[in-house]
Amino acid sequence: MTAVDTDAVRRRLLTDHSDVVRTVRDCAETAAATATEDDRTDTSAVRRGLEARLRARGVWERLPNVLANCVEAAGKALRAQPVAAAPYVAATATGVVLRATLAGGRLVVVLEVLTVERGERGAVLHPRDAPDGDLVRVEWR
């Protein structure tokens, strides 16, 4: 497997797409607050709510271009143009995942803006109290 400079990918995302990171954070926090009741969060509702909010703000459709920019920062080339759907783009209970299968491996970019707290009644999602840079994880698999 060919090495990829994951720090370069992370820097590119935070520099060129900081507005996307902030919007994902805002939309996820709203989705989690809306889906939390009686100390329990409906994680499926968070995923659906996050995607719907990102679509309403015009960000969901931008995520494939964000992924393409991350691939470029990795010094790789996409085999096909990504689309705003799985497997390239996915809303999760804790944020957004961008994936690209490339020559030599898979680039995975995670915007993990919510954290899971396990309680007696189930999972509760909370906003992560961290700077935007700490919300981004880049992996080369």
Summary keywords:
4-stranded antiparallel sheet; two-stranded antiparallel ribbon; 4 helices; 141 residues; alpha+beta; 38% helix
Could you characterize the architecture of this molecule?
This protein has about 140 residues and is of the alpha+beta class. It has one domain. It has 4 helices and 8 strands, in the order ααββααββββββ. It has a 4-stranded antiparallel sheet. A two-stranded antiparallel ribbon has the order 1-2. The termini are close together. The model has no long low-confidence stretch (mean pLDDT about 95).
How widely separated are the two ends? 8 Å
Helix content: 25-40%
The Rg value, from CA coordinates, equals 15 Å
Order of strands, widest sheet: 3-4-5-8
Number of strands: 8
Tally of helical segments: 4
Low-confidence stretches: none
Q: Which structural class is indicated by helix and strand composition?
A: alpha+beta
Instruction: Give the topology string: H per helix, E per strand.
Output: HHEEHHEEEEEE
Q: Estimate the mean pLDDT confidence.
A: 93
User: How would a crystallographer describe the biggest sheet?
Assistant: 4 strands, antiparallel
In terms of DSSP E residues, the strand content is 25-35%
Shape estimate: elongated
**Count of separate structural domains:** 1
